[in-house]
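Hi everyone, sorry if this is the wrong subforum. Our group has a chain we'd like a structural model of before ordering constructs, and none of us has done structure prediction before. Sequence below.
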Amino acid sequence: MKLIYLYILLIILSITSLFVGVSNISPLDIFNLTDEQKQILLISRFPRLISIIIAGVSMSICGLIMQQLTRNKFVSPTTAGTMDSARLGILVSLLLFSSATPLQKMIVAFVFALTGTLIFMKILDKIKFKDTIFIPLVGLMFGNIVGSITTFFAYRHDLIQNIGAWLQGNFALMMSGRYEMLYISMPLVVIAYIFANKFTIAGMGEEFSVNLGLNYKQVVNIGLIIVALMTSVVVLTVGIIPFLGLIIPNIVTIFKGDNLRRNLPYTALLGAIFVLICDIVGRVIIFPYEIPIGLTVGVIGSGIFLYMLLRRNHHGL
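Answer:
Right subforum, don't worry. Here is the predicted structure as tokens:
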């Protein structure tokens, strides 16, 4: 699996995405666009494409960092309660700060996402039976508890339909003026690449890291801050995209090993490609209607997750 092939596939899928939709725009029209077609491309299609790529890159890298720091291939923002905590934070911002700006909502969601992730990491420290599958199951239970609290207060304040529809992963609403917050993820990707080698060392354990002169707790906290901030931005802007940060890093590490710095470009590209494929499928399968990206990624991602669990058990036998 070479990077050049992934780049070519990403370019092909990106071009395809620009010309898939209810409004009929073909590649042959590109040099003779009407004003209406130009508006559709600039206001809707390009923002949607950029959102897909950034969200795919961000959530895949979040999963890769979490798996490295927890030393568990089945941990991700989906299975560690990070997304559910960010969702609770968004609900709190709606209840307490009804007139809050998107940036203020993101800050509240970030605080809750980081807190939830730190709680999950503390739970990991207390667990003696650190089985590969047991850990993410604990994370899923923790996430369900947080999700239940969110649902309870949403029902109490008549916000269940609001928050349910708003946080369902969906790129249909990505238009000029609504997606720009995703750009916050781009410098975080650069920071993740800078700290990649330190994350790799931290993934070998606290004692080993300290013996090499690494400030273990500081590196772990930086990684968790990156994960929480990326997750908050994506959840607030696009909605919840389940299992993306779980399956993409696993696919990459199967072929490329566990070197985080080397795996980052592959994980980022494959994550963007996977979300693009799911988005195109969701737009054409019941055309002219559209299936939300959260549903398509959830169905395909959960199937791949189940396969990885069964594959591990099979080889364990």
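For your construct planning: The mean pLDDT is 83. The radius of gyration is 20 Å.
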